[in-house]
Design brief:
Elements lengths: L1 E5 L5 H18 L9 H17 L4 E6 L2 E11 L2 E9 L8 H10 L8 E5 L3 H9 L3 E10 L12 E3 L4 H16 L4 H8 L4 E6 L3 E6 L2 E7 L2 H13 L7 E6 L4 H9 L3 E11 L8 E2 L6
Parallel strand pairs: 4-5, 10-11
Antiparallel strand pairs: 1-2, 2-3, 3-4, 5-12, 6-11, 6-12, 7-8, 8-9, 9-10, 10-13
Helix pairs in contact: 1-2, 7-8
The structure holds coenzyme A.
The site of coenzyme A has 22 residues, from helix 1, strand 4, helix 3 and helix 4.
Length: 291
């Protein structure tokens, strides 16, 4: 019989497999090219889960039949902002109400009247679930590809290395609190420990977390600073590797322009779902994993 119980670190291995199978099934159903599963991507996914089970045990749930994990929900709360990091059900168990039960547990973690954000896949069942839970839907695009025209790095943007990290984390806390209502320090620290990750800082104005050509999140006090950070990230993306900039809604025209100027492909994909906010904050691209 299927039951929902708190997730523990011992579930992480199976949970990663469920997530990989669920997203692979979705890509197949939507005729999207499959994504390569590598030792590195498995390790990253497991690290993200282990991190959240540690920081937010109350938001971490699995659906199990005996000792078999069949579904996972991971939610986090930071300073009153609730974020759904992951909701997946094993393909052969989908469409039987398991996602609903997992989401109910994840939603019960945190203040149901407080702000919340979900970076939703294009799965119609996911979109239906989140709208039914009271979130408003903002369709999003992902900008992807090898830059056809490389922008110039913006002057005054600094790359933060290990030496400057402590001071930079104080600064990004201040920026995050102003932009999105709460800092996400433990998550930024965890992200920065991933090989290849670095932080671009526009002092006093904003920051972007990047890993190779992938822009993981941007938060800035104004749109010009956000655009400068994205241009710099794209300028510095490794030659011959795809760059990616995700979760861009109609609110972030500055990001659409930056992506178009660099000649990236704009692909409509998924939605940013918010609660307690009229719309996603302007000079902000959320992190898919941590809001
Ligand atoms: C999204 C997912 C977690 C939902 O879990 P699930 O167990 O399949 O979902 P449930 O059975 O609880 O709910 C599905 C709901 O979608 C509805 N639904 C099914 N197909 C639908 C469709 N094509 N269009 C609209 N609604 C649909 C069902 O009627 C049900 O709603 P109801 O409870 O109001 O009747 C799961 O399908 C999954 O793992 N998908 C792939 C990974 C993914 O995209 N995860 C979301 C990341 S944000």
């Amino acid at each position: 019989m299927l039951t929902i119980r708190p997730m523990t670190p011992a579930d992480v291995g199976q949970a990663e497999e469920v997530a990989a199978a669920a997203f692979s099934g979705l890509r197949q159903a939507q005729h999207l090219p499959s994504e390569e599963r590598t030792d590195e991507s498995i390790a990253r996914s497991r690290a993200r889960m282990t991190h959240l089970v540690g920081t937010d045990p109350g938001g971490s749930w699995v659906a199990v039949d005996g000792d078999q994990v069949l579904g996972v929900a991971l939610a986090l709360t930071r300073g009153g902002v609730w974020v759904l990091s992951l909701l997946v059900v094993s393909p052969s168990y989908q469409d039987r109400g398991t996602g609903r039960r997992l989401l109910e547990r994840a939603l019960a973690y945190g203040d149901p009247a407080g702000p919340g954000i979900i970076l939703a896949s294009p799965d119609p069942r996911a979109l239906h679930r989140y709208v039914s839970a009271g979130f408003s839907l903002h369709p999003s695009v992902t900008a992807w590809g090898t830059p056809r025209r490389r922008p110039r790095p913006a002057p005054g943007i600094v790359t933060v290395g290990p030496d400057g990290l402590a001071a930079a984390l104080d600064e990004i806390d201040t920026i995050d609190t102003k932009v999105r209502g709460a800092s996400r320090r433990p998550d930024m620290e965890a992200n920065l420990s991933v090989p290849g990750a670095r932080m671009l800082l526009d002092p006093g104005r904003g920051y972007a977390l990047v890993r190779r050509g992938l822009v993981l999140t941007v938060a800035a006090l104004d749109e010009e600073a956000a655009g400068r950070l994205v241009a710099t990230a794209l300028a510095e993306a490794p030659e011959g590797e795809p760059a990616e900039l995700g979760w861009i809604t109609g609110t972030q025209q500055w990001a659409v322009r930056a992506a178009a100027e660099a000649g990236l492909e704009l692909r409509v994909r998924g939605a940013v779902m918010v609660r307690g906010w009229a719309r996603p904050p302007d000079a902000y691209l959320p992190s898919g994993a941590f809001g």
